[in-house]
């Protein structure tokens, strides 16, 4: 049975939290990748920056859903979630745009597990982490190569 370590890209392209969003977007496009792990100086995973995080900057501002009770407005969504959406839309740095606490894989996980996560959660770039550090990345193309 194939494991993640057998198909992962070992030399993962990464970005730093203080990198500018436009530079990170250029890096993703130039390398034809969907996303890149965000790491600190020691290679520890902080988050992931995907094309969908960057596309979020181009969408319209979501108006908060509210309902009225006794002449007062009560939001239906949490303030923190709305604040995070606004932050992503106006991000200048990778840290502001990235997805925090990304789904990760271990090198010993099976390829089937990686494929299941990709399909069920619609995530196409999964950092491979060992002892808190990024050791690779699995993308949908890595999984597709197995078919060939």
- Tell me the number of structural domains: 1
Global Rg: 18 Å
CATH class: Alpha Beta
Number of strands: 7
Low-confidence stretches: none
Tell me what portion of residues adopts beta-strand conformation.
15-25%
First-to-last CA distance: 16 Å
Tell me about the biggest sheet? 3 strands, antiparallel
Helix content, binned percent = 25-40%
Number of helices: 7
Report the CATH superfamily: CBS-domain
SSE string: HHEEHEEHHEHEEH
Q: Report the CATH architecture.
A: Roll
The computed structural class is alpha+beta
Give a quick set of tags describing it:
148 residues; alpha+beta; CBS-domain; three-stranded antiparallel beta sheet; two-stranded antiparallel sheet
What do these coordinates show?
- The protein has 148 residues and is α+β, with helices and mostly antiparallel strands.
- It has a single domain (4-145), classed as CBS-domain (Roll).
- The chain is built from seven helices and seven strands, in the order ααββαββααβαββα.
- It has helices spanning 4-7, 21-30, 51-55, 79-89, 94-97, 111-121, 140-145, and strands at residues 35-39, 45-50, 66-69, 72-75, 99-100, 125-130, 133-139.
- The strands form three sheets. It has a three-stranded antiparallel sheet. The chain has a two-stranded antiparallel ribbon with strand order 3-4. A two-stranded antiparallel ribbon has the order 6-7.
- A hairpin with a 2-residue loop joins strand 6 (125-130) and strand 7 (133-139).
- The chain is globular, with a radius of gyration of 18 Å.
Please write out the topology.
Elements: H1 4-7, H2 21-30, E1 35-39, E2 45-50, H3 51-55, E3 66-69, E4 72-75, H4 79-89, H5 94-97, E5 99-100, H6 111-121, E6 125-130, E7 133-139, H7 140-145
Antiparallel strand pairs: 1-2, 2-5, 3-4, 6-7
